[in-house]
Amino acid sequence: MSAKSEGLSMAKSEEPAAKPVATDTSARKLDAHDVVAVINMAKGGEIVFEFYPDDAPKTVDNFITLTNKGFYNGLTFHRVVAGFVVQGGDPAGNGSGDAGYNLPAEFNKQKHVTGTVAMARSSDPNSASCQFYICLAPQPSLDGKYTVFGQTIKGMDIVKGIKIGDVMKTVRILPKSEYKK
């Protein structure tokens, strides 16, 4: 079985009972339409993506909340499949970690094109938590099966150069009006 046909699952480990599903979106402080995520890579360069809050409100809120808590700072990209995706955001660093809860699936109309940002999950559609991936090329076979929540608007050259173990030095949420492209 090829790496591509294996999908975007999180590594399986023996898991206890199902985790609670996050459903509260009331904590949003800034309107997600007006902010971007900025990933500063430890090896240099930055990746910037905008959000799709109308298509994936709970997922966008979760990413913003985790980012504002510093959750992603210092984490790595633990999975890189050439021509497919780079995947990161796992506190365990090996594809098995999560944030202690699961998100409900928010499959939507957004397509998996180059630069798409979406949530990784196990075979359970409601198992996404904190791991995300960025598409290196269009992946139409993933459409409608994973929660797409953003699109890279700057730094695809950096994304395409990511190697396994590359560190996200900092991840920040910035107002679009303050972000200098």
Which short descriptors sum up this protein?
Peptidyl-prolyl cis-trans isomerase, eight-stranded antiparallel β-sheet, disordered N terminus, Cyclophilin, 181 residues, EC 5.2.1.8, mainly beta, 25% strand, 2 helices
* First-residue to last-residue Cα separation: 41 Å
List the strand order in the largest sheet: 3-4-6-5-7-2-1-8
CATH architecture assignment? Beta Barrel
H/I helix tally: 2
- Which residues form runs of ≥5 with pLDDT under 50? 1-6, 12-18, 20-28
The secondary-structure element order is EEHEEEEEHE
Q: Structural class, from secondary structure content?
A: mainly beta
CATH superfamily: Cyclophilin-like
Please report the first level of CATH classification, the CATH class.
Answer: Mainly Beta
Give the radius of gyration: 15 Å
Task: Provide a short characterization of the protein structure.
This protein has helices at 57-68, 156-160, and strands at residues 35-41, 46-51, 77-81, 85-88, 116-119, 132-135, 148-154, 168-175. With 181 residues, the chain is mainly β.
Describe the model.
The chain is mainly beta and 181 residues long. The chain has a single domain (35-175), classed as Beta Barrel (Cyclophilin), CATH 2.40.100.10. 9% of the residues lie in helices and 25% in strands. It is built from two helices and eight strands, in the order ββαβββββαβ. It has helices spanning 57-68, 156-160; strands spanning 35-41, 46-51, 77-81, 85-88, 116-119, 132-135, 148-154, 168-175. The longest helix has 12 residues, at 57-68. The radius of gyration is 15 Å and the shape is globular. It starts with 34 loop residues before the first strand and ends in a 6-residue tail after the last strand.
